[in-house]
Amino acid sequence: MYICLYIYIDHYEFVTLICSPIFCHIPLITVQAEARKLGLVGWVRNTEAGTVEGQLQGQRSKVEKMQDWLKSTGSPKSHITKAEFKKEKPIEGLEHSSFNVVK
């Protein structure tokens, strides 16, 4: 049994690097790396409101580790003042094959 969880992060300050010809947001890449390291799948993206949202899927213990990481550690280039996790639900199988940054 897997768990599906949505991420909502408000008041998210980040550093942007120019990776010609596109912009890369270091925190999202760091979130992606941590999620992949834990074996999670799903997605993350910046919103027009300047917040971050996403979805985590995987084993409960690994999703909980990612929640703790997002609340207490996060990207070294960011400052997260509030992280909310909503719409938790059990799922029979994973709906994604990897963890991606969505634009």
TrEMBL record:
Record EC number: 3.6.1.7
Enzyme class, first EC level, given as a word: hydrolase
Keyword Thylakoid: no
Catalytic activity: an acyl phosphate + H2O = a carboxylate + phosphate + H(+)
Pfam families in UniProt: Acylphosphatase (PF00708)
Similarity field: Belongs to the acylphosphatase family.
Organism: Fundulus heteroclitus
Name under which the protein is recorded: Acylphosphatase-1
